[in-house]
Design a protein that fits this description.
Strand content: 35-45%
Number of domains: 1
Shape: globular
Order of helices and strands: EEEEHEEEEEEEHHEEEHEEEE
CATH architecture: Alpha-Beta Complex
Radius of gyration: 17 Å
Oligomer: single chain
Low-confidence stretches: none
Strand order of the largest sheet: 5-4-15-9-10-12-6
Helix content: 10-25%
Distance between the termini: 37 Å
Length: 245
Amino acid sequence: MPKLVRYTTSPDCPSTAPDHNSAVLQGDFENLPKNARLLPPCSPTKIVCVGRNYAEHAKELGNEVPSEPLIFLKPPSSLIAHSESIVYPAISQNVHFEGELGVVIGRQAKHVRREEPMDYVKGYTCLNDVTARDIQRKDVQFTRGKGFDTFCAVGPWLVPKEEVELSGLRVITRVDGEVKQDAPLTDMIFPVDVIIAFVTACMTLEPGDLIATGTPPGVGPMLPGQTVEVEIPGIGLLRNPVIRG
């Protein structure tokens, strides 16, 4: 199975560096130089997230199940790679993990018809949509609670869509080895093709753009000193420690 990565051998290259940065390299995980450091496997112009896309997750937070995809944006400045630290912000007392399937767009997508969305997918990765739940609830809308630096962990690599059968996969999230979330992707209210068609009806997706498809039930707090893993067997395992900001 190809494991496509973006990486750098420069100690000064940030995780948010775009593809046109000369320090950003691309390759297969199995053939990296010894001094390689993984970067997020895509360089998005935007990160489009789907809220409440699992019925049980909507219910656990006291929300109604949506009748159409509920979308919001995270800034590209929130990106970090596999093994990098999630920074627990000092102004929050309730930061949650949210394990999700990440979808990376392969070519420009605009007004995509319902029968062709998968033609625009490059591949899949693991994603942690980190959320300052107290700030999200205080603000009502999602921008600040979802948008902190380090609040979008992605990786460790990208698996091409041709290598993946989504219907047989699960999202599993662990905190210090303890399973907190475990649900099949088939529990999503709106599958990937519906999400892409819905999003591109209002905005153009560019190559490298990232879609976070929603989190299953079981979200909860994580604390500085803990390690969070998001695993989708058949795609990969994303691991990030949590540190105090």
